[in-house]
Amino acid sequence: MNKVESYEEMFKRVQKKNEGAFVPFVVAGDPDFGTSLQIVQTLVNSGADALEIGFAFSDPIADGPTVQDADVRALDEGMTTDRGFEFIRRIREFTSIPIGLLVYYNLIYKRGVDRFYQEAHENGINAILSADLPPEEAEDAVKAAKKYGVDQIFLAAQTTTNQRLKKISEFSSGFTYLVSVMGVTGARKEVKTSTVDLIKRIREHNELPIMVGFGISQPEHVQEVILAGAEGAIVGSAIIDLIAENLQDKEKMMVEISKNAQKLKEATKM
Question: Disulfide check for 84: which of 55, 149, 164, 230 has CB 3.0–4.6 Å away?
Fold first, then answer.
């Protein structure tokens, strides 16, 4: 495995070009292992600055129907935590850009916290975000993250108090994941004004780069959050929708995903 680029190095790289970071999200193994790997390679070739990979889970409470369906497709194809780590290893054969893992804490707890973080590090994962793990309950995870040099990511939303933002700042590394909408993941028509306000509020408590996700689906959304001061945008449901729409035509799927990714990356340029 080649040397993995850190988030710090990635942010410096894109900032030198006066751009924000474009970070696509997909579920490992959706719609099947081989096609999913091809999708990730297409995204890398089409301008992804980092990757956010989800491990499929049976009860993804933070996700809307689009990601839930992706989880079901991946689970139906036999995806497990073991195969998820294998998937990351395969990605590392063709790219060194940062990989963040989005996972539900049950999968970490079941495997053993220390073991999960060790394997994450060994397989080339830069960061872990557990969507259902609040900072107040994250002592074991933060300890393991520091032990193995993995960035621990937490979510910040409009409802996050200043006191909790300080706690997130203490426990986080890599970047802060800002949730742009109230509710679950899924494509939305617009970016809320409260998102722009939250970017400013986070800046008062946290020096880490900010990535905005949940509901970011169009180039205009990406442009808006970058201009508002975020360092990057995470786009998931819009890409997963293209997977779902083209299950019978994999060639068309890759063409559509590539076109979409290039437009989203273009929107990060200031």
Answer: 55
Decide if 63 is catalytic.
yes
pLDDT digits (tens, 9 = 90+) for 257-266: 999 999 999 9
Q: At what angle do helices 33-45 and 250-266 cross, to 10 degrees?
A: 30
The Cα 190–Cα 211 span in angstroms is 17
Contact indicator for 216, 185 with CB cutoff of 8 Å:
no
Tell me if 242 is assigned to some domain: yes
pLDDT in tens, 151-165: 999 999 888 999 999
Q: Does the residue 211 lie in any domain? A: no
- Check 19, 30, 63, 151 and give the catalytic one: 63
HEC profile of 51-109: EEEECCCCCCCCCCHHHHHHHHHHHHCCCCHHHHHHHHHHHCCCCCCCEEEEECHHHHH
Q: How far apart are CA 113 and CA 103, in angstroms?
A: 12
Contact 130, 105 (CB under 8 A): yes
CATH number, domain containing residue 12: 3.20.20.70
Residue 200 lies in a domain: no
Domain span at 131: 7-153+216-262
How many domains does one find in the chain?
1
Candidates 5, 19, 49, 52; catalytic one: 52
Asked if the structure places residue 19 within a domain, the reply is yes
pLDDT at 187: 44
Cβ burial, residue 96 (10 Å; 0-12/13-18/19+): middle
pTM over 0.85? The answer is yes
Residue 183 has pLDDT above 70, yes or no: no
Q: Any idea which residue has 């960061």 for tokens?
A: 127
